[in-house]
Amino acid sequence: MNLIGNLCSSLCSNLEGDAKNRGTQRTIDASIRFPLVSLFKAAVCWMLIATVFGLIASIKLHTPSFMEECQYMTYGKVEPIFWNTLIYGWLFNAGLGCAVFLLARLGGVPLKQGVSLTIMTVIWNLAVVIGVIGIMLGDQLPYEWLEFPSYTAPIFFVSFLGIGLWCAMAFRARVQRSTYASQWWILVALFSFAWIYSAAQIMLVCSPAQGAFQNLVSAWYAENVFGLLIAPLAFASIYYLIPKTLGISVVGYRYTGIAFWSWILFASVAGAAKMVNGPIPVWVASVGVIATFGLLLPTTTFSIQFLGSLLSRFSKIWDSASARFLFAGVVSFIAVMMFKIWGALRGSQEVVQFSIFDSGVNQLAMFGFAGMVFTGASYFILPRLLNKELPSSTLVDLQFGAHVLGLILLAIGLISGGIHQGELINGSTADMLTVVNTMRGSYFLTSMGLSLLLLGAIAYNVTFFWMLLSTRSEKEASTSLIEEAPELEYTAS
Amino acid sequence: MSDESQNHNISGIDESLASDESILKTHTRIRREPFFVASPVLFTTAIALTVIFIFGWFYQRRYMGEQNPQMYLHERSDIALYNNWLERPRGPIVYDYYAIGESLYTKMACVGCHQANGEGLPGQFPPLAGSEYVTIEDSTLTTKVLLAGLVGPVTVKGNEYNGNMAAYGGGLKDHEIAGVVTYIRKSWGNESSEVTKDDVAAVRGAIGDRAPWSAEELGSYFQ
Q1: Chains A, B: CB contacts under 8 A, how many?
Q2: Each residue of A268-296: pLDDT tens digit?
Q3: Which domain holds residue B163?
Q4: Core-most of A272, A331, A367, B148, by most CB within 10 Å?
Q5: How far is residue B111's CA from residue A194's CA, in Å, rounded to a whole number?
Q6: pLDDT for residue A372
Q7: What is the domain count for chain B?
Q8: Beta strand B159-165 pairing with B150-156
Q9: Cα maximum dimension of chain B
Q10: What is the domain-level CATH number for residue B213?
């Protein structure tokens, strides 16, 4: 079939006329092409699947009869499938794809053993598939973001160990002695995920911790999935894309170390804030609240660095698909952190605890922050990987518009809805059904937001597969489309 | 698309505006710059640090459960109430042994064998009403039977029984044993003395953990 031929030629481009131009970079890209394409393929598919499940879950909240007759699609199953495919399907694959690209490019050498990386990631994605089926069959575990049945845990763990080791070796193989913030963040994400995942599995599944301590471990894990896995991978991409797409060094890069260490310090204990009013000694929750508040420090540093860089080259944002998504991601990041910090305070927890507020902040963090950043990075990476142009800038515009609008609706629906819901439940004269009915408007908004995200996801998928499967144009086949990048200039501050 | 016309590079591909090597080199140089310079990043970071420090300081004074690592409450007023409750004036505990025994007699199923009227079942379970083991002046005998049990042939009110009475010493606390003993010694027309938890503790201490008694071993009480 023609499509298969195109797919093969996408993966093995052979540009003879262009041999000298960007020689090393082309070999670097070629060395990771196969694993990266498979990672991004998995990522875009999971993105679509996750968004569909998210939409179904959201619709079920305002129209409970929706898909009611299907036993595999109850709310209790759809909701965890949504979150787990979102995190371990889409964001993990996309984030890892960006990480591998950065490790290879910043390391400055072609990487070996691309095939074993591909095998590991395929195993990982199989585990996600098994996990989704397991949840549908009712084997799910009761811990947030660890709902995949316990029999998938060894598969995840082994494949992640392989992925982590591969990345560590890729980092060691670098020829440049100096390192860049992106590389630090990638290493942090890989090391800490191995640790939080095994700790959580041991304390929750193998020999479950007793009583309230179990909740603490579960809250700690969920917060760290964001703070120590997804967010670091996104930071890595942001630090790389800023100089790449804007042509400037990161504003205030001198102070990156502060943000780096304080983020790791505070993010790793911030999860305890969820236990406010819980049956554990107060000081545990209070330490969590203080740590969450402490995230204000790295957040400030990041915000000024990122926004400062982006705003100083504002016009570039509209020229470049990547920078545009990056900008949206950074804005979402700031919003997410403000909501997280505010939402951790005892005064606000009185209202928003147990409402849909948390889910809203998490969705904004996953779709808005990490999702937008990884998407932006993939728009930078994919054309280089495949030596093909983005097929249609209209589709990219469509995705961007749909995602931004969708995120706004989602945020309004869930976050302001959550505050409203909490207030209603607290002023407990209203009975539960009245509260549910009043909330319907917010749920509708959320569903609309998710529909827009779905539209964006479809546009993204079309772009990706179009690019992968289309025939090379004359130009694409004969030369490298990517021109030599200029040197980044050093200007003393 | 207006987008494309503006693009100076090939449409549909984001231009790379910095080579990878120069990104590394330039940023490494920036890291060597002096730390304390007038930079908006440093300025805002310092402000954030101050805010966090102030917040953290007040928060830990306010919400650390008044320095008690075991404290589960966070509101000062609640903690004060709780502490007051802990320090409430408390007199010595007064036991109503008869009432304790009355409820245990049914709960521990004595009633199933010795019956509600304390008459037992002829030939199987000896009576408690008027039994010499219960109404005896020296209450330690009754306590001993309850604590360690009784097996083998026994004569109660002239009738011979040969059964097995389980030990309750392991399951019941001193004040509960005292309650049961007091109850059977004061019911169904029995009018013997009350037994307190200290009496039980003394007997328990004297006999320790032991196998059930036989009537022979307790014979000295009736001489």
Answers
A1: 198
A2: 999 999 988 888 899 999 999 999 999 99
A3: 97-222
A4: A367
A5: 62
A6: 97
A7: 2
A8: antiparallel
A9: 122
A10: 1.10.760.10
